[in-house]
Write a structure and sequence with these properties.
676 residues; four-stranded mixed sheet
């Protein structure tokens, strides 16, 4: 009986629906479940039913959905009042813009993209415009500079700019609606909320699109016409609180790259962006803590904060010389030091360079990270990263690690450098007295093989200053003065050094340099400066064109500050004779703020630029080098910091302050009193 019942239940389970099986299974449990045969039959029924239920349910859902979709589609097509039907103008326009975007992305060359712009720019919406700019920048970034110049002259670019301006009018709906009634505006807002994605593709020109176009223009260093950058600056200034960290740093980077457009406006935007970055700092630090470290650019989630964001923000502030404030600088430097392994070498070098440009001491821990990165990750470093890192280390007087300098030798660094990298590297090594390093000679040999037209005026200035520092260092080592006659022992040392360098650099000694045949015999009767220059290959234009650039930027372009004039007036009021402002040293390479000629005292009025931003009473390394150079030329240096003078001015104790300062350099108090 049980077997017959189990067979019938199995057969019924395969054919019955859900409700019938529930009744049947309920009735079965009224019987004797102790019977093993019946239990087996129930298990078979359950297994058969579950498989049948899953199949039939999915099938019914699919049939029901299909029927519903067909019915809904037909009803929408029959209803002409339906605003959301797929045949409406808005819907067709949406698919048209999607198709345009696909066509832009499919273009292989810049010419194809510009041809598409010429044909379809009037149909573009904000997303199409943004895509066109972005793809053009990507393509041009892989091509030669001549292609970029041709792009800037192409008339079709103006069509893209006109489309950009047209799409910008849809950024704020109030500007586009004009005299539309409030009821129609409300309906439009309701429609946009209901179909946000479709309406966004139709007429939005959001922050992402603005950021893409800014990035594109900054990448190819192109300043668009029709006031586009002004409008973008207005947009960012009005919506700065809506930017997430990565978008903020990207916008900051773009305006820093385009600073030649309007430096003052770029600085204004940068200040606003960094103020927003400061407000976001607690959230950023909390996110980093939760994530257990920094994100790399490729791994950062949307709206997150990456190593690239720090690198871009710091580089931008350094480029614009816009200090963001000690709090955010110290926070970024701390993150970089703690998670330096996550940072790319270029990002670390950018942060070091920015700290140098902003005169913000990053701390010995960060400088150690920069030195360690150069020594252990040199293969990852581009020449710009190496030169920027060296410049950052030297600006704060950090002693170069011998292992790092050795890794840079063997022409590994010099052969990859462009003109600016050469100038930065040579000045950095000279600033920390690394004249005996192999890389220093390699860099000068490369400079000697180049024409002076390949260097910017600032680079020529750095080269000549490095030469002056080298000369001072060499004379200190040999305890000779500017006007001394060089003895035979020194001549032999210079000759041997030069011959050794010539043997290892045969390819560069044949180029334009100060060396000539019969070198050892030509040294006799030469001055100290000429002999000092023989230590390394130096170009023939160093003492002419480079010196003129140095004089123009360092000596002849000096203007007296109000602080300088005030100190000079107080000194002259004491009836001191033979006082000169901006006096040149005997060799003509250094300028003294106020020179007391009878006593050979150099008074330097040191304003804020001579001190670290975050360490008010700590002199910059450049100021220390200046004082050392003046002392080497026989001058006693008196430094008057601006904050000390302000205090003396408030207390009206100028005379006593000056007396104490002069006494500090060895002038007896009786002699000081006779000066006043």
């Amino acid at each position: 009986m049980f077997r017959l019942l189990s067979r019938r239940l199995s057969f019924a389970a395969a054919r019955t629906n859900n409700n019938d099986f529930s009744i049947a299974s309920g009735c079965c449990f009224l019987l004797s479940p102790e019977q093993s045969v019946f239990t087996t039959a129930c298990a078979a029924v359950s297994s058969s039913f579950l498989w049948r239920k899953r199949f039939s349910t999915d099938d019914r859902r699919r049939r029901t959905t299909t029927t519903t979709n067909v019915t809904t589609t037909l009803s929408r097509r029959r209803d002409p009042k339906n605003k959301n039907n797929n045949n409406s103008p808005a819907s067709s326009s949406f698919f048209q813009h999607v198709q345009l975007n696909r066509e832009i992305v499919a273009c292989v060359t810049c010419s194809e993209i510009l041809k598409h712009v010429e044909t379809n720019s009037e149909k573009y919406n904000g997303v199409n415009v943004s895509t066109a700019w972005h793809r053009l920048a990507k393509k041009l970034g892989r091509e030669e500079r001549s292609s970029v110049r041709e792009f800037k002259r192409d008339a079709r670019v103006l069509l893209l700019e006109e489309a950009t301006v047209r799409c910008m009018q849809g950024l704020f709906r109030g500007n586009e609606d004009g005299d539309v009634t409030s009821r129609e505006t409300a309906e439009r807002r309701h429609e946009r909320r209901q179909y946000s994605s479709r309406m966004k593709a139709e007429d939005a020109f959001d922050a992402q699109n603005v950021g893409n176009i800014l990035w594109a223009c900054a990448t190819i260093l192109y300043t668009p016409r029709l006031g586009i950058l002004d409008k973008f600056a207005d947009i960012i200034e009005g919506n700065v609180d809506k930017l997430y960290p990565q978008a903020l740093s990207n916008s900051l980077w773009s305006f820093a790259r385009l600073k030649e457009w309007n430096l003052l406006r770029c600085k204004t935007v940068a200040e606003l962006l960094m103020q927003q970055a400061l407000r976001m700092l607690p959230e950023v630090l909390e996110d980093v803590k939760k994530a257990g470290g920094m994100f790399e650019a490729k791994d950062v989630p949307f709206g997150g904060f990456s190593t690239q964001a720090i690198g871009n923000a710091m580089w931008s502030c350094g480029t614009l010389r816009c200090h963001p404030g000690e709090k955010i600088m110290d926070a970024y430097l701390k993150l970089t030091t703690e998670y330096h392994e996550k940072f790319k070498t270029q990002e670390i070098s950018n942060i070091a360079w920015a700290s140098a440009m902003l005169q913000h001491h990053p701390g010995d821990a960060f400088l150690s990270v920069v030195s360690e990165t150069l020594a252990k990750r040199l293969e990852e470093c581009a020449s710009q990263a190496v030169s920027n890192s060296l410049l950052g280390l030297a600006t704060f007087g950090y002693k170069m690690d011998e292992e790092m300098l050795k890794a840079l030798g063997g022409k590994r660094h010099a052969r990859r450098c462009n003109s600016q990298d050469l100038c930065n590297s040579i000045w950095a090594l000279a600033a920390v007295d690394a004249f005996e390093a192999e890389v220093y000679g390699d860099l000068w040999a490369r400079v000697s093989s180049m024409h002076h037209d390949e260097f910017a005026p600032e680079g020529l200035n750095m080269l000549y200053h490095a030469c002056v520092m080298h000369q001072d260092h060499w004379m200190d080592q040999h305890a000779v003065g500017n006007d001394d006659v060089v003895d035979e022992e020194v001549l032999d040392d210079v000759t041997n050094t030069s011959k050794k360098r010539k043997s290892t650099n045969q390819s560069t000694t044949t180029t334009k340099s100060t060396k000539a045949k019969g070198f050892s015999s030509s040294l006799h009767g030469m001055g100290v400066r000429e002999v000092a220059l023989q230590r390394h290959d130096t170009p023939i234009w160093l003492d002419t064109i480079a010196k003129k650039s140095y004089d123009d930027q360092t000596i002849h372009s000096v203007t007296l500050s109000a602080f300088h004039k005030h100190v000079s007036t107080r000194i002259r009021a004491g009836f001191i004779k033979n006082v000169a402002d901006e006096y040149l040293t005997e060799d003509g390479v250094m300028s003294i703020d106020i020179a007391l000629l009878d006593h050979k005292i150099a008074i330097e009025c040191d304003g804020p630029s001579h001190f670290e931003k975050n360490m008010e009473k700590s002199m910059t390394h450049k100021t220390i080098i200046r004082n050392r150079g003046l002392e080497r030329r026989g001058w006693r240096v008196v430094s008057i910091p601006y904050f000390e003078w302000q205090e003396a001015n408030a207390n009206e104790t100028h005379r006593k302050y000056l007396e104490d300062k002069l006494a500090s350099v060895g002038v007896q108090r009786e002699q000081v009193l006779t000066l006043f």
